[in-house]
Batch of 3 targets.
Target 1
Amino acid sequence: MTTLNVNKKPIVGVIGRRIMKKSFASSLLSRGYNVHVYNRTKEKTQSLIEKGAVFHSTSRDPALVADLVMTSLTFLFFTVFLPF
């Protein structure tokens, strides 16, 4: 986990489904946050990448680099993609 520097905005990881992920990430990007996103299909995050988001191909990766992670997931997602 990274150490939060109080003089800069935190790195935010966004893991979500469809519209909620795009809404969270777009809002954060427009406010100058460094946003890292995950999606199984890179093309579905292309609009966020063009706005400055960093794409990750696994759901674990944004959490490894972010100071905080926002999620909006279904139960099915947790049981299939994030086995604990």
Target 2
Amino acid sequence: MDEIVYFEYSAGAQALDPNIFKCKVDGKKILKIDYPDSNGFIAIHKKNDETEYVKASFMKFKTRKQ
């Protein structure tokens, strides 16, 4: 399966909400981004064993081959 390397999300519709948040796997701050689970949450694994869970109405991500 491909791995996610870049992720964008917003709580509102993209055209209406200018607050689009961006995450990029860089190996320093963000280590890994998981695919959405059965409830639609994406896990963003950060340094120091921190994990942020995101569920948004607008989500877009880019992948690359492992």
Target 3
Amino acid sequence: MNLIWTGLTLAQRQALAILCQDGPCSLPADLGEQLLNLGLVERATNQIYCVSALGATIPPTTLH
């Protein structure tokens, strides 16, 4: 499976951008699960997620 920024939904892109910029944060359960299943985030605690090594490579460099 190829993961590209434009292949993600708007909500997924926004959440991933926030995680890359601000670090671990709470996400809605369904959004967190989607990103977790894609391998873009890891669960820190219950609903707190952090970006995974793979997830850090997805956003365009202009967002870093």
